[in-house]
Amino acid sequence: MYLFFDNIIFELQRAGGISVYWAELLSRHSLDYKSYFGRKNSNIFASYLHLNLKDEVYPNFVPRRYFPFWPKSDYAKIAKYIFHSSYFRYSNNSNAINVTTVHDFTYEYYSHGLRKWVHGWQKKNAVKKSAGIICVSENTKIDLLKFYPWVDKSRIKVIYNGVSDDFSLQKDAYKLLNDQLGFQHDRPYILFVGDRSPYKNFDVFLGLADKLPEYDLVVVGGQDFNNDEKQKIFAIKDRVHHFRGISSQHLNLLYNAAFCLIYPSSYEGFGIPVLEAMKSGCPVVSTNLSSIPEVAGGAALLVDTVTVNSMFDQVKRLENTEFRDIIISKGIKQASQFSWDKCFEETYAFYQELWERSEIK
Predict the structure, then answer these.
(1) What's residue 152's pLDDT?
(2) Residue 79: is it exposed, middle or buried by C-beta count within 10 angstroms (0-12/13-18/19+)?
């Protein structure tokens, strides 16, 4: 079985959930019969892989992300191969068995205008051309069949994301945060991880500051605060700490030392921070929406309506030490059911299934 991997995602983002997924898969492939396609990039996860990248025939000024995969002639002659793109591309070669991973339908639900149309066109074409479609959760599969009801269910495989071994219980997390990040604090803090798109409900997180004056607020990831966010934070700026571009090891320390993770998202295709927090012994307060209850598995405190008051009520429940310890224990057990090794093994088994099912000789 010959495998072609299209690493276009590493050129499209410096970091991000899809980059984590793709890097974790590639790091586990040890077969000789594989080729990696792509160009130099600044992706922080790709830098650890040291891939021998092969290029395509498109010149540098062509936006390859919107075009089918077109390898140089030597590789186009291979009789049969699995082609798995990291971001909605496909091979038009009749020898290709295309595989697409669908992570979510955020664009379809929350974007507008040209951006939404282009993404939808690209995703729909990739799904149409693919012999196999990987969905990262049952909820994503439901969304896929909602938007593309013509897809044959036998082409779909649900394969859950994993959670990195970088996340674990860490002794002396408070001290290490001081030593390694210079983060000195003598107050408990609640944690927000990820970008701050509107559906992530960052305003709800900030709203907790008034109701929880004894807590600081720690924000990880995303861009610098915009002007609107700065205005909202101004009165509490001494209580708000923002970390960008930190390593998984440092994020692990922040999870370990946090009172809880606040994850008020209205929509997730999977929700990796939920598992990262649980694996690190950090209780999770999140929403009973989209894939989150599927991933949390009864080990998080979930609200049906995303409001400051509903989140506040759950944080206050965690102030009962005995109850908080129970939630932590449940979270560690739940996170143990997910791993990147398992994700890779199921993905590779799906390649084999598609290879054997293919009529290409």
Answers:
(1) 97
(2) exposed
Q: Do the beta carbons of residue 177 and residue 253 sit within 8 Å?
A: yes
Backbone angles phi, psi at 15, to 5 degrees: -160, 170
* DSSP class of 87: S
- The answer to whether the beta carbons of residues 21 and 46 sit under 8 Å apart is no
Contact (CB, 8 A) for 358 and 80: yes
pLDDT tens column, 264-292: 999 999 999 999 999 999 999 999 999 99
Spatial contact of 36 and 54, defined as CB atoms under 8 Å apart: yes
Element (H, E) at 353: helix 340-357
Residues of the chain predicted below pLDDT 70: 32, 76, 361
- Give which of 115, 70, 85, 111 is closest to 18, Cα–Cα: 85
Cα-based distances in Å from 297 to 61, 101, 184, 263, 335: 46, 23, 34, 15, 9
Q: Quick one: pLDDT at residue 62?
A: 85
Distances (CA, A) of 153 to 71, 132, 133: 30, 10, 9
Q: What is the enclosing helix (H) or strand (E) of 100?
A: strand 96-102
